[in-house]
Amino acid sequence: MTLRSPPLSEAHEAADARFTDFGGWEMPVEFASIREEHAAVRSSAGKFDVSHMGQVAVFGSDAAALTQRLTTNDVTALDYGEAQYGAITDEDGVMLDDTVVYRLPETEHDDFLFVPNAGHDGEMTERWEDHCEEWGLDAAVTNRTTEYAMIAIQGPDAPELLAEQTNANLGELDRFDIGGGAVAGVSSLVARTGYTGERGFEILCPSESAVTVWNAIECQPCGLGARDTLRLEMGFLLSGQDFHPEDEPRNPYEAGIGRTVKLDTEFVGRDALERVDAEGVSEKLVGVELIDRGIPRHGYEVESPDGDPLGHVTSGTMSPTLGEPIALAYLPVEYSEPDRSVRVVVRGEPKKARTRTPPFLDR
Amino acid sequence: MSFDVPEDRRYLESHEWVRPDDGTARVGITDFAQDELGDVVFVELPDEGEDVTAGEEFGVVESIKAVSDIYAPVSGTVAAVNERLFDEPELVNEDPFGDGWMLEIELTDEDELEDLLSPDEYADQIA
């Protein structure tokens, strides 16, 4: 299969980035070094090309009703220029994806824009279209993934850096707000969202102008490697790894995002999730910190101090900020309390570890 | 990008180097290997006195993004371990042919060195 390339591909090649296949996209994984890029975001600022994230627009009188019935959060609570995080679940309440739903500023043609994960844009567009038809709703769904580039500027210096290049009133943007504005002269949407735990913004601009925006914002370019270590320090989920409809079928309560499930709304999976909410979950995504030397990795077994199997690591790394090996793992719910002793089996050797409550980093 | 390939040692296709010195040999991974791995954050090595066999794995080096086995270029007994790497694994990135060395091996068969790649052969491999 041919990999999809982001509109900034040539700029990344010129910057000597290393690339990786991620969700069917050939994306930069590293520019300088993951450690340097990670540190830049935590201490000053970094820019990420996140054009591999899907952009699906929903327009029409039933745009809100359609999106409401396909996501777990309450879309109708969104005012113009506001966004929310939510999950997309099947009838059984299993997470197919997680997403940010933007209700666009009133001046935009499209009413809503939601951002599925890399490689899910086609499938989610179809899901919206099929249900729109099935339910007889009045909405048009357009996959705008190739039209838009998405650039994230993250870090304590991000507001100042972006302010130099935009006429958007950044001071008026609260967390999860989105507004219109020009960035480096390019008509864009600017949202105060991101996935690093730092202050920051995500810019949606036309693909053909992506290079202008990217070059105008002068800070450390960062790849998917640093994005992964930054999100993991915050305990944020990675689609396909911390949940996956076939390989790791999980509901939002197990995955620790039960707050995004609004049971007083109607959506696919609601009844199943109501039952889960009433009965409680038996396993939860728990933070784990290794005490012994070693690095917990995806798939490693987690066991009790007596050697009884408990679960497995879904994401793990050496935290560049903390200098500690950290992980997320689905464990029996009684292990969701911090400081429970567990072991992570690293290449056949059980290593001492303890549970922690994410985020691993205070932000 | 060009990588250092010092003339005073021999190499494995799997990117380890060995520098023989009077019956013993120092072992590490190459400049190319550390660059490919990225930020090294963990190194697992055998204890002193353990035996290693040419071509077989003797340890593990982990970067933030990857886990790689390390293979012994020669057979023998581990005479010294670079314990600095346990607290400063970044030495593998900073100085792979110097302070980032991993083991010293007392050789059981010096002829094994002849089976390894010359600096020119290794430089061709990574070119």
Account of the 3D structure:
- The complex is a heterodimer of chains A (about 375) and B (about 130).
- With about 375 residues, chain A is of the alpha+beta class.
- Chain A has three domains: about 10-55 and about 145-235, Gyrase A, domain 2 (2-Layer Sandwich); about 55-145, Aminomethyltransferase beta-barrel domains (Alpha-Beta Plaits), CATH 3.30.70; about 280-355, Elongation Factor Tu (Ef-tu), domain 3.
- Chain A contains eight helices and 19 strands.
- In chain A, the strands form four sheets. In chain A, strands 10-11-12-9-3-13 form a six-stranded mixed beta sheet. In chain A, strands 14-17-16-15-18-19 form a six-stranded antiparallel beta barrel. In chain A, strands 5-6-7-4-8 form a five-stranded antiparallel beta sheet.
- In chain A, α2 packs across α7.
- The radius of gyration of chain A is 20 Å and the shape is globular.
- With about 130 residues, chain B is an alpha+beta fold.
- Helices cover about 20% and strands about 35% of the residues of chain B.
- Chain B is built from four helices and nine strands, in the order βββαβββββααβα.
- The longest helix of chain B has 8 residues, at about 120-125.
- The model of chain B has no long low-confidence stretch (mean pLDDT about 95).
- The interface between A and B is medium-sized, with 17 and 13 residues.
- Chain B: The glycine cleavage system is composed of four proteins: P, T, L and H.
What is the element string of chain A, with H for helices and E for strands? HEEHEEHEEEHEEHEEEHEHHEEEEEE
Q: Give the tally of structural domains of chain A.
A: 3
Low-confidence stretches of chain A: none
SS summary, helix count of chain B = 4
Q: How large is the radius of gyration of chain A? A: 20 Å
Question: Which band does the percent of strand residues of chain B land in?
Answer: 25-35%
Q: What's the average pLDDT of chain A?
A: 97
| Largest interface chains and counts | A-B, 17 and 13 residues
Biggest β-sheet: strands ordered side by side in the sheet of chain B: 1-2-3-9-8-5
CATH class designation of the largest domain in chain A: Alpha Beta
How would you sum up the global shape of chain B? globular
The assembly state of the depicted protein chains is heterodimer
Radius of gyration of chain B: 13 Å
Strand order of the largest sheet of chain A: 10-11-12-9-3-13
Structural class category of chain B = alpha+beta
Amount of helix of chain B: 10-25%
CATH fold name of the largest domain in chain A: Gyrase A, domain 2
